[in-house]
Amino acid sequence: MLAGVHHWDSNSLDSILPRCLMPVALSPLAGYSLDWFVRGGIDRITVCANSATRVVRAVLGGGDSFGASLEYYEDITPRGPAGCLRDVVAESGAQTLVVADGSHIPPFDLNALLAVHRSSNAAMTVVLTSYDPASGLNDGRLRPVGVYVVEARALQEIPPTGYRDIKEGLIPALREAGEPVLPYVVHDPDYRLSDLAGHLATQEYILGRVRRGDLIAADYTRIGDAFVHVRARVDERARLLGSCLIGPHARVEGDALVIGPTVIGSHCRIESGAVVSRSSLWDSSTVFADAQVDGAVLAYGVRVRPHGRVCHTVVLPPEDYWVPRPQRAVWRRGDASRTALRRRLAAAP
Fold first, then answer.
1. Measured between alpha carbons, how far is 112 from 237 in angstroms, rounded to an integer?
2. How far apart are CA 157 and CA 300, in angstroms?
């Protein structure tokens, strides 16, 4: 899993913590990518996080909570994505690698991808999508999603030192060497935290999985389409409409309105008369009385003043706010997911 640090812009959530650790529905983003690997039968995973390795390891640990065994590779001198792959293969002896961007949740079936790759004898399979996130439509233009299946022989084209990219370095080198590179086209949305819209769309996707029972967590009570932690306090006069997730020790006071898809993090407070809709509130944020938040991400410890309005933006925490270490995985595979997994395993040759 490629989990190196990348930046959106000068006013970025990336300045707070690595993107792969950003909370999506109260769990770090990387947890969903790791779950995708495990569902596909891959439980030995190397995380390449370069300068963020220490903090990523502190959150993800050895992988027990994800049902995987995690190892970490840190390139002391910048090697780039392809360079890291070469180094990992040299250390592990793996013959086939599945590579995924840690800021992305692949929604497609990994087993189907592997079946196509194995039958093709390709040195590399590149996953492409025709989904346009701006329009929400499949427009026919193909875009890489950051997922590859790579044979060890393909990495012979990568020098042992220096920086080398996958798209601009490895793929052209394979084509020049006459090695087959196979496109694998999907038509699913590309869920990644590349901007505000991507963050909210990814959150909505995960909330949909929670609502369908594909992901479940202990200590949450379902109220309509909302999931409320047993240690959260929701006043009986508060209204929760649509897909909402209320974290532990959060408070939603009387006459407050929360409209989904919305996530209220742990220790957040929504005061009386406040309206929060289609937003993500990270831990310890407060929306004071009669304030409005719509289509926004409020990072740790953000406060929206009484009668204030925050719409369609990202709000960073106060400069003096101590950013806590993100939680480990909250969700685990639900009964529907486990049943589907058992069926796939039973049908496998």
1. 48
2. 44
- As given in the structure block, the two tokens for residue 116 are 């196509």
CA angle 242, 270, 321 (to 5 degrees): 120
Residue with tokens 């992988």: 63
One-letter amino acid of 40:
G
User: What is the CB neighbour count within 10 angstroms for residue 81?
Assistant: 20
pLDDT in tens, the chain (349 residues): 998 765 544 446 777 888 889 999 998 999 889 989 998 999 899 999 888 888 899 888 998 888 889 999 988 788 889 999 998 888 887 889 999 988 888 889 999 999 999 999 999 999 999 887 666 677 778 888 889 999 999 998 888 889 999 998 999 999 999 999 999 999 888 788 878 888 999 999 999 999 888 887 778 999 999 999 999 999 999 999 999 999 999 999 999 999 999 999 999 999 999 999 999 999 999 999 999 999 999 999 999 999 999 999 999 887 766 666 566 555 555 544 434 433 433 443 3
- Distance between CA atoms of residues 5 and 165, nearest Å: 15
Of the candidates 177, 181, 186, the residue with the CA atom closest to the CA atom of residue 124: 181
Domains contained in the chain, CATH given = 13-191 (3.90.550.10), 198-315 (2.160.10.10)
One DSSP character per residue, 143-195 reads EEEEEEEEEGGGGGGS-SSS---IIIIIHHHHHHHT--EEEEEE-S--EE-SS
| Distance (Å, whole) CA 218 – CA 234 | 18
Which residues are CB-contacts of 338 (< 8 A; sequence separation ≥ 6)? none
